[in-house]
Amino acid sequence: MSAWLPTAPCTPQGCVEAPAAVRALALPRAVLRLTAVLLLLLAGIVLTPLGGRVPASLVRRWCRWIVRAAGVRVRITGAAAPTGGLLLVANHISWLDIPLLAAVRPARMLAKTEVRHWPVAGAVAARGGTLFIDRDRLRALPDTVARIAGALREGAAVAAFPEGSTWCGRAQGTFRRAVFQAALDAGVPVQPVRIGYRLSGGRATTAPAYVGDDTLLASLWRVATARGLIAEVEVRDPLPPDATPDRRTLARAAQPPATTAPAWTHTVLVA
After folding, report:
1. Which stretches of 154-214 are DSSP H helices?
2. Strands across the sheet with 108-112, in order?
3. Which member of 117, 149, 198, 212 lies 3.0 to 4.6 Å from 185 by CB, making a disulfide possible if both were Cys?
């Protein structure tokens, strides 16, 4: 791994809440949840060849169903522009962030090349037009920025996690500037999104985090066995392309505030 790559200090041992003892009666429910997630992902693989012929509203619902199937309720406040080139940027905590962003607006995801090898989800990502970035090759970065800008000019939405690494949610990283250059080059707005996870009692939780040397299977199991998980998605005001003079300022403006309690108004609750 290259020394320039952003890394988070978060680890499963130091940051992620250990799951409570799973009651025997809860095991079948967890298995059913994971089975439902798998079936929905397989349905996505089947439908991806249809591409743009699948209505955006159906894609958003499908993404919400994935999160809900895992046993997580979804609260979304705000909305993104339904059409036109748009760069969606968000903080990054969990694999759940990916369907949550697509529930805001279906978009071409910017992801590390390792995602290609994820079971099932990697196939969905590849067929869904994901823009993969080889984070070990700094020389490939300008070409990646150019490809993102090209997609944005064509009217597509592109979703990215500019921290470059997952964080546990109690802390967050700094938004890297490169992806914002693509928005400036294409002349499209940036839509900041803030993602957080709570328990039904209101307390913030790190249970859904997928950090450090954690495995995808371990994170999936924590989510499936958790009780009362809620994903909160705050869609903030878009930043027009002429709002800031350079990518550094734009990245700073898009960075979500370091707060654990966004003000939830006009909230949509997906049961």
Report:
1. 178-186
2. 131-133, 108-112, 157-160, 86-90, 190-199, 229-235, 73-77, 267-270
3. 149
- For residue 27, what pLDDT is reported? 83
Q: How confident is the model at residue 16 (pLDDT cuts 50, 70, 90)?
A: confident
Q: Give the rounded percent of residues in the chain with a pLDDT score beyond 90.
A: 46
**44-78 pLDDT per residue, tens:** 877 776 666 778 888 899 999 999 999 999 999 99
42: helix, strand or coil: helix
229-235 vs 108-112, strand pairing mode:
unpaired
- Cβ-in-10-Å burial (0-12, 13-18, 19+) of 117 comes to exposed
Say how far apart CA 161 and CA 33 lie, in whole Å: 26
At 220, the amino acid letter reads: L
Dihedral, 93, 119, 66, 162 alpha carbons, nearest 10: 30
d(CA 137, CA 1): 9
Helices 178-186 and 247-254 sit at what angle, rounded to 10 degrees?
Answer: 110
